Amino acid sequence: MCAPGRGANMAEHLQASLLKPGFRKAAHLHQSYCVSGDLPGIAVRQVRKTMRVHMQETIKSRRKPSIRISRSDHQRLSALADAIAARNPELSDTLFSELDRARVVGDGSLPPETVRMGSTVTYSSDAGETRTVTLVFPGDADIAEGRVSILTPVGAALIGLSEGQSIGWTARDGREHALTVTAVTAPAEDLDTPSAA
In this predicted model, which residue has the larger pLDDT, 55 or 146? Predict the structure, then answer.
């Protein structure tokens, strides 16, 4: 374990690693320091912010489509991404990057054809397959029932997309994929109360 009082140096070490190839290494170091307790909270937040900026630059280089997220979804998903940061920093930063680049709109202003939490989405994959899933929070996930967690690579890729948009995403095994949203059905409560705030 590192000696006390070296948190600032560790933060500098982590940030420096982001300037070199190997973002996964930086994420691993970040996780190790957080678990060991050697990195002060303020330094952890600073490093996470730097990592998110790095991820945003990667997203821009891939020319991802513009996305829209409701204010309530944005708040809940930000809290969720923060809660999983220590045990799964890479997934946390992926979700944060999507949230950071999204246009946040009022809950009643999100078009029904835009994917939000609870939406049922039909998409086609680059493998020629068509799937219909419902995007849910982790506690409601059930792959056998077609309920996909936002904390999966494909779930994080779907949030905020609209019908007709395509996006690339990386599976847990590192393979690159692409999907195109072909249909979106808003959650039942939104259909019942379209002007809900």
Answer: 146
Q: CA 38, 90, 104, 112 torsion: positive or negative?
A: negative
Burial class (CB in 10 A: 0-12, 13-18, 19+), 150: buried
**31, 48 Cβ separation under 8 angstroms:** no
User: What is residue 115's predicted lDDT score, i.e. its pLDDT?
Assistant: 97
What does the alpha-carbon distance between residue 132 and residue 158 come to, in Å, rounded to a whole number? 12
Please report how the helices 7-18 and 23-36 are oriented relative to each other, as an axis angle in degrees rounded to 10: 160
Cα of first residue to Cα of last residue in the chain, in angstroms, is 49
For residue 139, the model assigns a pLDDT of 92
What residues form DSSP beta bridges with 184? 121
Global confidence as pTM: 0.65
- Per DSSP, the three-state class of 125 is strand
Which tens digits make up the pLDDT trace of 126-142?
888 999 999 999 999 99
Q: What is the largest CA-CA distance in the chain?
A: 58
For 57, the enclosing helix (H) or strand (E) is helix 41-61
Q: Which of 33, 52, 91, 55 is nearest to 12 (CA)?
A: 33
Return the amino acid letter for 96: F
The band of 45, judged by pLDDT with boundaries at 50, 70 and 90, is low
